[in-house]
């Protein structure tokens, strides 16, 4: 019997019992490599299921067609198919199988860079698995959630999931073993985590183990990923020639097998090597190829990173115009990804009037198309006076407005910086909300829109007493009648507000409010993106608690110093520092006081190091100090100064809590036996291990 006849025979059995869907699933899975035939089978399954009102089978049909679209990079079609599958399973109250639809949505949103949505669907799927004891789907979802955390660079969270899977017998209800393909995926996930937490040698061993698994040669994308990960590992160890070889292998393999996503992913990592070795011409060529391929296939996360890399290259080369061009493109794609996520979250609400609301917003967007130029003008300018002039000029074309204002909210200080404008007059004022009685304060505190037709008659809806007016506009306040306020919100966080006001009564309604809301959202994203981008280097570079360099940054600096020393014979020494029994502080006084103690200790430690030294937070209570152009003798002096200063200091956490602390330090000077900066750190760490045996000491 031919394959087609066998498939039709199994389809007909579905009418007797939909449990026969398991046979259909097996046939589709076994024929997965025959893409054309498989698509025909899936379409036939959907057609047959709809004709015979077999809703469970139809749900599986949409699930499989979702994977077909996903494999062909048709992400929006894949997301739609997985969502239909989810809704069909949901209508059947089939909580056991609905987890698979959640898994599909987790995968597609991860590839689209919609990490929040991906996590939400992953957690939703895991909760279904826990409820129904679907162990098979549970493992798949855990692995995919782990991949999602890696994409977001939350390597600690990814590692927690890996450790959970490895202790699988301890997880209630999990008794399912991984298939060979799942085992390979899982091992590559582990390898990528090890690379990014600073253990590339361990990653290489894991990859070698994965390459020995029986079915690895049957999965082209896996082989491509293995070569890429090996390249990333060699890049971390400073073996750039070996990294180049692996990236080239991965690239050639992806071209030969027509793996376009894997090709772009490999080129992105390859470009990082080129940037590190200052081969900017090749890096630009690779990144330009990525953008061309990604734009037509909607590989938005990869394209976004390519734009950012090109911005960094041109900024370093002081080609300002090109740098700004790619910065704008980077921020535009950020906006597009954000807007898509918002629209998907809106769809999840499953309201009957979703289409009507979407059409309304579409029309409103058309009315505000003229705002497309605002982004470029704001991106390159952080002067709020200029920004408010630009927006006031545009909003006047859409809304009858006498007064226009923006407030930028500082949640830590619970205050806003207000910028109000009439004609060409701008008033600036800072308002603290714990002392004021204004409509703007109500809007921000309650995250609510305000529409008022006559301020003197209607303010009681929101305030107990007549509202105060911004200083400088007190005389104008008596003239104001119609008012609308809307909060500027990003990811449920209020970042400010926007208001339009007029001397005419009853001027504003929902249409005007909706226009203002779109303007407010656009402005919030634009201003926030600029602020975030200006802070991004600082956030990525410095630990928020200690103000020391992050682990990633200190290792990056260490790699650079190592490379320089290797070719110039410069000295440098590494000091590993560990706070003795710091856990006792957290356990005794809680993490709030623990954090305060950590901050005070770091501040004290920073006074002991020299301007030429680099210090980073390496772990919870562990620090890495690099003494550049310094031999062991001088580094020991610095280490001893840190030890003595910490030992003699009293750290005051409050009036009643004062703690003392000691440190253990391991010191190692770079020598010819160190094949990478990682080796230097490991040897310093070995010295620290010896110091920890006696505590409060320095060992070399």
Structure write-up:
The protein has 700 residues and is α+β, with helices and mostly antiparallel strands. The chain is 63% helix and 11% strand. The chain has 29 helices and 13 strands. The radius of gyration is 30 Å and the shape is globular. Mean pLDDT is 82; it is low at 169-175 and 345-368.
Summarize the structure.
63% of the residues lie in helices and 11% in strands. It is an alpha+beta fold and 700 residues long.
Distance between the termini: 75 Å
Percent of residues in beta strands = 5-15%
Spatial sequence of strands, sheet with the most strands: 3-2-1-6-5-4
Average predicted local confidence, pLDDT: 82
Structural class from helices and strands? alpha+beta
Shape: globular
What is the CA-based Rg, rounded? 30 Å
What is the tally of beta strands?
13
Oligomer: single chain
Contiguous runs where pLDDT drops below 50 for at least 5 residues: 169-175, 345-368
Task: Give me the number of helical elements.
Answer: 29
Biggest β-sheet strands, sense, barrel: 6 strands, antiparallel
Q: Helical amount among residues, as a percent range?
A: 55-70%
């Amino acid at each position: 019997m031919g394959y087609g006849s066998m498939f039709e025979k199994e389809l007909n059995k579905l009418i007797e019992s939909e449990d026969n869907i398991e046979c259909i699933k097996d046939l589709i899975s076994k024929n997965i490599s025959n893409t054309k035939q498989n698509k025909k089978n899936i379409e036939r399954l959907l057609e047959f299921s709809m004709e015979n009102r077999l809703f469970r089978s139809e749900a599986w049909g949409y699930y499989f067609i979702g994977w077909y679209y996903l494999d062909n990079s048709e992400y929006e079609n894949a997301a739609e198919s997985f969502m239909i599958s989810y809704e069909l399973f949901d209508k059947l109250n089939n909580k056991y199988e609905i987890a698979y639809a959640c898994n599909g949505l987790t995968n597609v949103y991860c590839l689209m860079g919609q990490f929040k949505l991906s996590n939400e669907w992953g957690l939703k799927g895991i909760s279904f698995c826990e409820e129904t004891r679907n162990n098979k789907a549970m493992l798949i979802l855990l692995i995919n959630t782990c991949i999602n955390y890696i994409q977001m660079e939350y390597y600690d969270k990814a590692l927690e999931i890996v450790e959970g899977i490895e202790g699988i017998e301890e997880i209630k209800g999990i008794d399912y073993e991984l298939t060979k393909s799942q085992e390979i995926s899982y091992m590559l996930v582990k390898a990528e985590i090890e690379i990014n937490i600073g253990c590339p040698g361990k990653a290489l061993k894991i990859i070698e183990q994965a390459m020995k698994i029986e079915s690895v040669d049957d999965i082209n994308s896996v082989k491509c990923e293995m070569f890429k990960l090996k390249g990333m590992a060699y890049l971390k160890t400073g073996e750039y020639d070996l990294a180049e070889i692996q990236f080239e292998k991965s690239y050639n393999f992806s071209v030969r097998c027509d793996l376009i996503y894997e090709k772009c992913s490999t080129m992105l990592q390859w470009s990082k090597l080129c940037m590190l070795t200052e081969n900017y011409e090749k890096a630009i060529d690779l990144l330009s190829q990525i953008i061309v391929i990604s734009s037509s296939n909607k590989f938005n996360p990869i394209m976004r990173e390519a734009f950012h890399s090109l911005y960094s290259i041109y900024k370093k080369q002081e080609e300002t115009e090109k740098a700004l061009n790619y910065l704008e493109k980077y921020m535009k794609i950020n906006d597009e990804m954000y807007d898509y996520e918002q629209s998907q979250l809106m769809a999840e609400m499953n309201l009957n009037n979703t289409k009507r609301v979407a059409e309304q917003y579409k029309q409103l967007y058309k009315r505000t198309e003229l705002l497309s130029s605002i982004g470029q003008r704001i991106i390159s300018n952080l002067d709020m006076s200029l920004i408010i002039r630009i927006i006031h000029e545009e909003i006047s074309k859409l809304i009858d407005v006498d007064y226009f204002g923006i407030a930028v909210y500082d949640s830590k200080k619970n205050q806003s910086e207000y910028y109000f404008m009439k004609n060409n007059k701008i008033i600036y004022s800072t308002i603290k909300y714990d002392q004021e009685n204004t409509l703007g304060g109500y809007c921000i505190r309650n995250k609510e829109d305000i529409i008022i037709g006559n301020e003197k008659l209607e303010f009681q809806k929101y305030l107990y007493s007549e509202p105060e007016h911004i200083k400088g506009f007190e005389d104008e306040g008596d003239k104001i009648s119609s008012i609308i306020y809307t909060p500027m919100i990003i990811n449920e966080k209020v970042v400010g507000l926007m208001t339009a006001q007029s001397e005419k009564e009853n001027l504003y309604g929902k249409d005007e409010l909706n226009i203002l809301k779109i303007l407010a959202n656009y402005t919030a994203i634009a201003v926030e993106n600029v602020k975030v981008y200006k802070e991004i280097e600082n956030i990525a570079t410095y630990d928020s608690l200690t103000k020391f360099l992050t682990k990633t940054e200190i290792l990056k600096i260490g790699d650079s110093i190592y490379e320089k020393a290797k070719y110039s014979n410069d000295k440098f020494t590494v000091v590993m520092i560990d706070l003795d029994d710091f856990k006792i502080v957290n356990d005794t006084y809680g993490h709030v006081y623990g954090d305060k103690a950590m901050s005070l200790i770091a501040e004290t430690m920073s006074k002991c190091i020299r301007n030429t030294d680099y210090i980073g937070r390496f772990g919870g209570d562990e620090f890495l100090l690099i003494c550049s152009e310094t031999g062991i003798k001088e580094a020991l002096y610095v280490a001893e100064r840190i030890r003595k200063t910490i030992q003699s200091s009293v750290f005051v956490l409050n009036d009643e809590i004062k703690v003392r602390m000691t440190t253990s330090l391991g010191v190692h000077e770079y020598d010819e036996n160190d094949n990478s900066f990682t080796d230097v750190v490991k040897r310093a760490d070995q010295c620290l291990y010896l110091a920890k045996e006696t505590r409060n000491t320095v060992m070399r």
